[in-house]
Design goal:
three-stranded antiparallel sheet, mainly alpha, 2 domains
Length: 174
Amino acid sequence: MLKRMRSVRPGKAWHYVRSFFRREWRFEDYPVTVRAQPGGTAAPHEDGSWTPAYTATIDGMLLFGGGATADAARADLRAKFEAFRKENELPRPGTEQPLRFAASDRVTSFGTLRDEFVERVLQLPWAFISDGSTLDEFEEPEDLKRRIILLYGIDVDRLPDQRIVTILDAIAAR
């Protein structure tokens, strides 16, 4: 119990204690902070970009909502919370959600081939690549595909998917 209490966020103890009296946690059980955004607007700019006038966050979670009003930001956050809850286990209210990094076991197993790919294809000094990373996560994926054909003779469009692990598999098999 003492170990759990260390992860309780300061000022959020009430939410933490109250969570022991509920079987299922709801949006209302979490500490929500709504803030006005400096430079925020009520509607998108002409170029389509938008900085919402208000943001809402659940303290200790990596979720946020935005809107033209404080109520709209809170409603957006509630919708994202419900979507998150369907796919993930909720952290106890008043505590911090642990960070989880994507698995990278397969891509790491390629060792020097992965490093060469990052240097020659992505043309970066380093890159974090997980087992689910795709070419679309990097700038100019079409240029990257051309570079892969020139360097390795692999047509990425003929592979089952564009995950970098799949591409490295094809290169290693060649």
